[in-house]
Design goal:
- By secondary structure, this protein is mainly α.
- The protein has helices at 22-49, 61-80, 88-101, 104-134, 136-165, 170-173, 188-198, 217-221, 233-237, 243-253, and strands spanning 3-7, 10-14, 180-182, 202-207, 210-216.
- The strands form 2 sheets. A 3-stranded mixed β-sheet has the order 3-4-5.
- Helix 7 (188-198) links the parallel strand 3 and strand 4 (202-207).
- The protein is elongated and about 85 Å long.
Length: 257
């Protein structure tokens, strides 16, 4: 785990790599709700030790804080176990399906689809409660549903992207052909003769048959349009610090073919 991002509904952990098997995924996913459950029970136990009786109002401010935090952690444990990816419950569901089918991508798709269905249910229920008088409570539930829907859709898109890129080489998805332009010509020339007719946005700049950089529409926009006829491609390219390095990487990547 490289970082944890906290927000209103909890937090998201950023890991350096995905779980390698279903058991590892299950252990990682279940640890969060179990931790919230343990903290909640410990806080309520501490409140009980301070003479608080469940179902009654706490007598002191310290006891009130303990009770409130205890119930909040129990609520988070229950909420995070909702079987909708990317919640912990959704990841538990993913791990179970993964263990049964042996297919990580299929299990993730199923978990995200369940998450989207739950998200739609939350949104509809929240809107219904809002119109029948729940006011902010209904909108809050709808917002939670919207958040889950956005997270599930993003997770599904990520799975599809990773499945599409898996076992592919750079040469399989890169553009094999590239245009070169001479560095001494004016910036107006590649824009009029290449960018506008072809739609291409990136060109290798050569000077005496040697690569001197990379010119893109981004570099062109940095030069005033009325100065394009007087500005050489090489001079415009020199404005970009990583220009030559990018061009060399681009040419080096062709060697993967």
């Amino acid at each position: 785990m490289s970082a944890i991002t906290l927000f209103a509904l909890g937090g998201v952990s950023q890991t350096e790599s995905e779980a390698s098997d279903a058991k590892s995924e299950f252990r990682t996913a279940i640890s969060g709700p179990l931790t919230s459950l343990a903290i909640g029970l410990a806080l309520l136990g501490a409140a009980r030790a301070s003479a608080w009786v469940p179902g009654t109002e706490p007598r002191t401010a310290v006891t009130s804080v303990l009770v409130w935090l205890g119930y909040i952690n129990l609520t988070l444990a229950v909420f995070n176990m909702i079987p909708g990816y990317p919640l912990d419950g959704g990841r538990v569901l993913r791990a179970i399906v993964w263990w049964i089918t042996g297919d990580a991508d299929r299990s993730t798709r199923l978990a995200t689809q369940v998450g989207q269905a739950i998200a739609f249910f939350f949104i509809l229920l929240g809107l219904f409660r809002f119109f029948v008088g729940a006011n902010f409570g209904g909108l809050w539930l709808a917002f939670i549903g919207w958040f889950l829907l956005h997270a599930s859709c993003s997770s599904y898109a990520q799975v599809e992207l990773m499945a599409g890129l898996r076992n592919r080489r750079v040469a399989d998805i890169m553009e094999p052909d590239y245009f070169t332009v001479e560095g001494h010509i004016s910036l107006q020339h590649p824009v009029d003769d290449f960018v506008l007719p072809t739609g291409r946005r990136c060109f290798i700049v050569v000077d005496n048959d040697r690569v001197s950089g990379l010119i893109t529409t981004q570099e062109s926009r940095k030069v005033s349009r009325d100065r394009w006829p007087q500005t050489s491609v090489k001079a415009s390219c020199a404005r970009s610090v990583n220009c030559t390095l990018s061009a060399r990487r681009h040419l080096r990547s062709k060697r993967f073919n």
